[in-house]
Prior knowledge:
Layout: H1 2-13, H2 16-21, H3 25-47, H4 58-74, H5 77-92, H6 100-105, H7 113-116, H8 119-130, H9 141-166, H10 168-180, H11 182-187, H12 193-209, H13 221-237, H14 244-256, H15 261-288, H16 299-306, H17 330-340, H18 342-357, H19 373-393, H20 404-419, H21 437-457, H22 459-477, H23 480-485, H24 492-517, H25 526-544, E1 555-559, E2 565-571, H26 577-582, E3 583-591, H27 595-598, E4 602-605, E5 608-609, E6 615-616, E7 628-629, E8 634-636, H28 638-649, E9 659-665, H29 667-677, E10 680-686, E11 694-700, E12 705-714, H30 716-721, E13 733-739, E14 754-757, E15 759-766, E16 773-774, E17 786-796, E18 806-819, E19 825-829, E20 836-839, E21 844-853, E22 860-870, E23 897-908, E24 918-919
Parallel strand pairs: 8-19
Antiparallel strand pairs: 1-11, 2-10, 3-9, 3-15, 4-5, 4-10, 6-9, 7-8, 11-14, 12-13, 15-24, 16-23, 17-21, 17-23, 18-19, 18-20, 18-22
Helix pairs in contact: 3-9, 3-10, 4-8, 8-9, 9-10, 9-12, 9-21, 10-21, 12-13, 13-15, 14-15, 17-18, 19-21, 19-22, 19-25, 21-22, 22-24, 24-25
Amino acid sequence: MVQTCLADEVKRSAPLSDSAVGVTGKRWIDHTLIFALAVGVRLAFAFLDGHSAITFACDASEYLRDANGLAEVFGNPERLAYVGKGAVHLLTGQTGGISSEAFHSAFAPVKELAIAGPMFPLFLLASFKLLGLSVCAANWQAPVLFQCILTSATCVLIARIGGSLWGRHVGIVSGAIAALYPGFIVNSVRMYSESFSCFWLCLAIAICLSEEAHERGRSLRPLITGIVSGISLATLQLTRSIMVLITGLTVVFTGLERGRTRWKHLAGVLIGLTLVFLPWMTFQKIAFGKSSFVVDRVGHYNLFIGTNVMTQGWLSYPYPDGRGIEEKSYLSLVRAQVKSSPGRFFRLMCDKPLRLLKFPWNDFKTPIGPFAMDAQVLFHQALLAVAALGLALVSFVEGREPSKPILAKRFFLLVILAVHLIYVMFITVPRYNLTAMPMLILLGGAGLVAIARLVKSKRALGLALALLAPLAVAVCNYDWLGRVFIPAGLQPVVALAVATMLKCATLAAFFCLIFSALRYFKPTSVLARLSLLPMAVATIALCAFPLSGHGRWNETAIPMKAHGVLKQTIYVPGSAWQKVSHGQCYILVDCENWQVLGNNARLFINDVQLTGPAFPLLPFAQDFALAKSGSENDRYLECETIYHYMTIAAGGSNLDLRQWFAVPVPAKLVRSCLADQKGELHVRIEAAGPAGGSIFGAYTRPHEMIRIPSLTMSSWEKAFYAVENPSGLSDCRYDDRITIARAVHNGEAAPHMVREPNIRLLVGPSFDGDQMASAAGHPGSQPDQFIIATIKGHVADPSCKPGRMKNLPLEFNLLVESTDERGCHYTYRSPWVPASVLCSACGRTFSFSCPVEKQIMPGQIRRFTVVVRNGGVAAGKDFFGVTGPNSACEAGSRQARVEDLAIVLSSLRENPIGRGCAIF
């Protein structure tokens, strides 16, 4: 009786009534309520939540430039007349006295359209013009408003598709999930094309799967809906080039539909495609001299980077050598990477699905009201769990003869979902999966409704599944090693094995329960049972085992508590004493951010306090020969500028990134310590108060080879797009394998893995004497390569209660000025300044150091100037913002003040991570 009841429920929920009576009034009400919920949430997030609209970073700035270029070309009557005249001559084969170079230069403002595609820039341009605003970042409200409306309409389309394939209840649930899905909310405020693409994909699917599109008789509705579908597919394809596969699938699916009306619908699709592609192909031929149906998103380079085993599939800095890849086939590029290291290539491919699916798309970790990134991750992963239920339980339900077309439509939806797996071969980031989320949301809605029906009819099994799904998510996300097993006394390797088995057992139980529930959803296709096993194996492999997408399994974060002490012993073998004694030495500390050492922390070597500046090493890992000049002779470096624009989008600064910080050690101190302590340096860090961060370490084996974060190689993509850290940014650095000598006590080394903080001794390029010196006189008069500007100050907030700390958002400007022999003035604004500082009622000192490479400044450096004011990017509710849910303490008040601000300059002769450096 239970089986028959559930089968009847599934058949009753099928959308057959829609074809008979059309969309009912209830569904109009459902869709209106879903739209109201979605647009209300998005407008509140966009205009009331107090965070940044992303208009100046990454692809957003590129699309804005393209929209501005379109306005420049088509908004200038003289230029437009010139372009029109040239186009006529070009199309008729007559030059008319206009050279091709001069003609193509008229299209210079829109040259990036060949890569970006025309549709999203046109949408941005239309948004500005409809509200009578100029195209610029300051008027971001215009496109954001229309994008909020567009993404809200996407939720309605998802509800419509769910109602068509599974019934009204699934439609309502799917639409509500879409309205509240974090990835859709966050990215409705960003000038990125993925949200735009999502709308057109859902529109094309909704039309393709609707009964109205195949209405019989002499009705023109199939032709009209086909035209709209063709326009949607063309728009989608010209926004995301990989979506050309969706166009092909839709055309094939439409051609396979039964009945004569499929020819009307297919003809309409072809007409719609032509209406978009014909003007675009003509424009390409006129503007660029060539045309293509597919937007060139530099696919060869994307594949080359995405399969690169040396860079782990991320764009790294320094850039990998991609010369000649355009002449090679995709297959040869992949084959070369497999040949270079089959094992590393396999591990990279295992990691790619995690990058695509593990997190919702939120590159800058923007909170949504009180919901920080970790809460958004749990929402997303819970959705994936119920989507697995929907895929297994109700995707392949056949029913009787009338439901077989429904099965075909559901299968079509799954094929579109599977198409997105092609991204694992390219640079793989969560935002590429946004257009797959409508399918996963639909499966999640179907899974939730199926579980509700199962609970109603088979309570024990339904409740078990309903409870095990979130339990599996929780078990896979919990830090079993750091919080349970290692504190209980297990060795790290044993703890890892136990945690892996626990995750495997929980996930296996989850899928076994799904298999048991299948018999209550009859009649069931064999495909349901066949699909469950590979889905279970893939999920367990990806979620339970220690892949790099879950972070370094042996890594640990050591919080620097108030007045806390952290110790490390560094052993230098006798064979290296001479090198260490004749090279500039530094103590390296792997810090969560600058505040770990910048809040008056004290660092000792063998009880001798170091007084030198603690400066970041990341600025030294860039090519200083590539310094460029912007407007008004502003000098900048590409690598640190990209980091700067991405960190300010997250509400912070470059100093908020996890990185190595270096503190110079006098040569005399190193020599005396080596002689007195037989090669051992005892390092101690004492926190004077709340440090505002952690020092990272790792469980290392007793043999000599260990892994540490790289000193020279990093990736901003890895920092912002990787899925290692559900609570924040990932480590931007790669791993280096180094040889570490260890002291032997009592005739033997430590037998097991031990926890060591990432505190190391760096020896720079060898020379005789100390590198660090005071920069007396003019800073430009020193012969040294680098100047370290250390900014010190005192900050107090009278509103802060005694014994409490506040985080004060500050905007620092460190300006370096130089003059060349012709009298031209140049400026450089260092991005290595903080965005907030910890303060207290009675006051608190802080210091941070900014390296400046002298050769990037033409002529002689004349002046260093630092200016600070309250506020800045950290005043908002972004990830690093002090008013956001991720702040360590409450924000400082307007009464807070910065006093005794001073600059101390010191010089550095060589790049500390230049050729010849060594680590101990």
